[in-house]
Amino acid sequence: MPATSDFVKKLYKMLEDHAFSHVVSWGPQGDCFVVKDMNEFTKSILPRMFKHSNFASFVRQLNKYDFHKVKTSDDAQFGEHSWTFRHPDFHADRRDALENIKRKVPAARKSLTSSSNGGLGGGRGASSGSPTLRGQTDSLIASHSSLRGLVDNLFATNESLRNQVGRGEERIRALERQYGDVLVELVNFQKGMAQQDGLMQGLIQYFLGEGGECL
């Protein structure tokens, strides 16, 4: 019995885990899967399931197993930045068909085999480059989307830092105001102490004067 590849098994296992369903899940019909949040998928799920955090590399791996990015009527439901992938033997309710998903033979090897089979075979070999080209296109699109996600994250981080700096400046200004208020209170306290000292001195002098007269 043909063995199912580790990549395909991990892919299926990932979609069985409901903890990931807000980020990646089966499509409504179970005949495709949807990456709903590419940034969160790249940051949290790829390292956990596939030991890397490169979305473009993940797409290239899918293409090697003849998965293709497709557009469906459900794209609007998951957002314009969602990614939907499909393979004819990859279905939610057909675990037994996973063994049919095989890594594609490299185009160069196909071309060499077709050339050895004669002219007609050569024609088939030339046409076999089309899926590879489509896979490369998907990979480039994934790289672009990944870079766009990184740029968006950098902008968000920059905005967050700027907000933090703004809040820090506000706290500094508040502390400066509090420090000024404390200084004013200290000055007033010193004035009050000086007034009390003057009053005490006056009372002492008064009582000393009264005592001298009595004597």
Quick description:
The protein is of the alpha+beta class and 215 residues long. It has helices at residues 6-16, 38-50, 55-64, 75-78, 107-116, 119-127, 129-214, and strands at residues 24-26, 33-35, 68-70, 83-86.
Would you mind describing this structure in some detail?
By secondary structure, the chain is an alpha+beta fold. The protein is 67% helix and 6% strand. A hairpin with a 6-residue loop joins strand 1 (24-26) and strand 2. The longest helix is centred in the C-terminal third of the chain and has 86 residues, at 129-214. It is rod-shaped.
Order of helices and strands: HEEHHEHEHHH
Largest sheet: 4 strands, antiparallel
The overall pLDDT, averaged over residues, is 80
Class by alpha and beta content: alpha+beta
Helix content: 55-70%
Give the overall silhouette: rod-shaped
**Strand neighbour order, sheet with most strands:** 1-2-4-3
Number of helices: 7
> End-to-end distance, in Å?
128 Å
Q: What's the alpha carbon Rg, rounded to whole Å?
A: 37 Å
Number of strands: 4
> DSSP strand (E) fraction?
5-15%
Q: Uncertain spans, ≥5 residues at pLDDT below 50? A: 120-129
